[in-house]
Amino acid sequence: MNKVLVIGDSCTDIFVYGDIERISPEAPVPVIKPLRKTENPGMARNVKHNLEALGVDTDIITNSNHIRKTRYVDDKSNQMVLRVDEHDCCNRIKNLETTDLGLYDAIIISDYCKGFLSEKDIEYICNKYNNVFVDTKKQLGNWILDANFIKINHLEHKKNFETIPNYPKLEDKLIVTKGKNGCVYMGNKFDVEEVPVKDVSGAGDTFLAGLVVEYLKTNDIEKSIKFAQECTTKVVQKHGVTTI
Fold first, then answer.
1. 3-class DSSP assignment, residue 132
2. What does CATH list as the number for 3-9+47-59+92-235?
3. Other beta carbons less than 10 A from residue 159's beta carbon
4. DSSP run (H or E) holding 235
């Protein structure tokens, strides 16, 4: 059985679903009457849970403090009306150079840019080990050139529009996800099945997990992208942050 290590920032994802029937008289905001609440591990821990749901033995190195993302959602329309982020930062990773990362078949860096990983940390991991898959919110640069594959969404790709041409080596590593418009890799577009979407929260984590699982089986990145899209298509049809 393959063994994967996930390194990155984690949080608790909380969804409060309630009835919204009126606007507050004090301010132009909706009044929500809570009906139910769900909680589950998010960000890097959501990647780990998706890997485990796909049958992969997974370890994680992540922050110990509790970042919380609370979303308030209208139960009838599934429209999010407010998100509250608490303790939205964490301490930097410790003892990275003394950790034996060579025990794993793949390493996933799930970097939500909350302070757990610096550019130097990611560069160290990518330089020293093979089969490193990176999902980062940071501005790309030469520090990430040794990653095997880099998954970013279309908004992050736009943010890096002026940076990417400066690093030609990035072109054959970038997998750009575009939601209902599929994704792009090496100039090739991968369409995705159109489905009724209930929630896209955590969908990128599922994509990343599916990508790595299939790549370890096939060593074929195009097959891996298609499998990752199949996984993502399933979770976006569910409420909240869920696993495949």
1. strand
2. 3.40.1190.20
3. 15
4. helix 221-235
